[in-house]
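Exercise 4. Each item below gives a protein and its sequence. For each, produce the structure-token representation.

Item: Zinc metallopeptidase (Candidatus Avichristensenella intestinipullorum).
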Amino acid sequence: MYGFYYDPTMLLLIPGLLLALWAQIKTQSTFRRYARVPSQRGMTAAQVAQDMLRRDGITDVVVERTAGSLTDHFDPRSNVLRLSEDVYDSTSLAALGVAAHEVGHVMQHQEGYLPLRLRSAVVPVAQIGSYAAWPLFFLGLLFSWEPLVLAGIIIFAAVVAFYLVTLPVEFNASHRAIAALEGGGYLTYEETRPARKVLNAAGLTYVAAALQAFLQLLRLLLIAGGRRSRD
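Answer:
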């Protein structure tokens, strides 16, 4: 029985929370470590991103600076690749890895990479689901209306699908980044190892997010199943 002050299904979330905390610490510490190591060639992250785009024949994407730390992203709506303040002008191995990763997303967009297209298709439902799923679910429980409970579960399943399809998108972008950094001569073979460590650490944050979403969905199913067994 689920008490008002104690819900045993909350214990399911602990592994996801611990992984998320560890991934965040790992990402920040790894970035800080290699943000102090300059690349031998001495190009800034912005210069590397621009040159990678040029070499790939992509001329309609602008590289801009954006505020914040590790706020780097590619906006396909405006065709702008935004690099954070601690990446844009940096020549460090960490900054070049982050910039190349974002260029990887540009390449995915240009070629119509299937997982990226799937993620874009799921985004609207996932955005709604992240806000609406739990209210619908608990209203269904409150009023003992099974269709509303089921609707909450289905909508949150779309959120889980978003996080799951994000994994191949992010790991593929990192794979492209390392190949481009070494193949283009921006980093030596030895320098790509630290850059890979930065991207692998960042990838853990996406794994943690997917695990958290999956465990939340499992929790919804257990709560719904427990409620039906008591009725």
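Check: The first strand starts at residue 62 and ends at 66.
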